[in-house]
Amino acid sequence: MPANLPPQYFDVEKKYREAKELQEKLVYLQQMLSVVPKHKGTEKLQAELKTKISKLKNTIAKQKKSKGSGGIWYQVEKQGAGQVVLVGLPNCGKSTVLNTLTNAHAAVGDYPFTTQLPKVGMMEFKDIKIQIVDTPPLHDDAPAWLFGLYRNGDLLLIVLDATHEPASQFDTIHHALNEKNIFIRKQEFGDFKNTVILLNKVDVNDGYTQFVGQYGEEFVVVPFSTHSEEQTALLKEKLFDELHIIRVYTKKIGRPVVRNEPIVLKQGT
């Protein structure tokens, strides 16, 4: 019996083969198992994946014992219609963005490294929910699991502080991602991640026009201020667009369309 594996399986399998960290490989194996259709034709594949997961867990456990308390890894299970992962340097305003888009209550401070662990909120938009993941700031000694979050997300939202040389911030982030084989420019060869750039605090410093002139042809660039409902609505619209998903509404014969729980599929399905 043929397995008839969905396209998502092969996308995740490619990421699994390219992953360098054991914890990353484990995340992708678990995702592969979750998307495999459960029927007679995939029983062998399911068994192989479960064996690989078990062996990898044992290897990771042995490594943790040998390294003492090191080797901590954090991951965020995907929920909703898509997962948007925030990326930014210290004090760029990621937590404020999360709080504005969702009902989350992430700690916000005017000092670096307020966010030390991933924080999650759900953004309600057009009858669906989109998962927004706030992450610790990117820095020279950032842990490997942080890049695992970036690699696993459906869409990266790079948050830049418009008041402090946003082009320089972007170059720093771009270089750090490249070093981990996470590529945000289509001409770069590797694990391409679709990306939206958010220019935060434009109400304080209007560097938006200059930044768009430099990067607007390559990337979707959105101005943002927590005081602007119009810019918040624009950001939600752009995130929805760049996730490249479609909603399929269902109805029973003789009854109205069900609007609260559409089926979500990737464009081109």
Instruction: Output mean pLDDT.
Output: 84
The largest β sheet comes out as: 6 strands, mixed
Gyration radius from CA atoms, angstroms: 20 Å
Count of discrete alpha- or pi-helical segments spanning 4 or more residues: 8
Distance between the termini: 23 Å
Query: Outline, from the CA principal axes?
Result: globular
The structure class reads alpha/beta
DSSP, total strands: 10
Helix-residue proportion: 25-40%
Written as H for each helix and E for each strand, in order along the chain, the element string is HHHEHEEHEHEEEHEHEE
Q: Give the low-pLDDT segments.
A: none
Main β-sheet, spatial strand arrangement: 2-3-1-4-7-8
Strand residue content:
15-25%
Report what the structure shows.
This protein has helices spanning 7-18, 22-35, 43-66, 94-101, 144-152, 166-179, 208-215, 229-242, and strands at residues 83-87, 119-125, 128-134, 155-161, 182-183, 191-192, 195-200, 220-224, 245-250, 258-266. With 269 residues, it is an alpha/beta fold. The strands form three sheets. A six-stranded mixed β-sheet has the order 2-3-1-4-7-8, sandwiched between helices. It has a two-stranded parallel sheet with strand order 5-6. It has a two-stranded antiparallel ribbon with strand order 9-10. The chain is globular, with a radius of gyration of 20 Å. 31% of the residues are buried. The model has no long low-confidence stretch (mean pLDDT 84).
What keywords describe this structure?
two-stranded parallel ribbon; 8 helices
Write a compact overview of the structure shown.
This protein has 269 residues and is of the alpha/beta class. It is built from eight helices and ten strands. The strands form three sheets. A six-stranded mixed beta sheet has the order 2-3-1-4-7-8, sandwiched between helices.
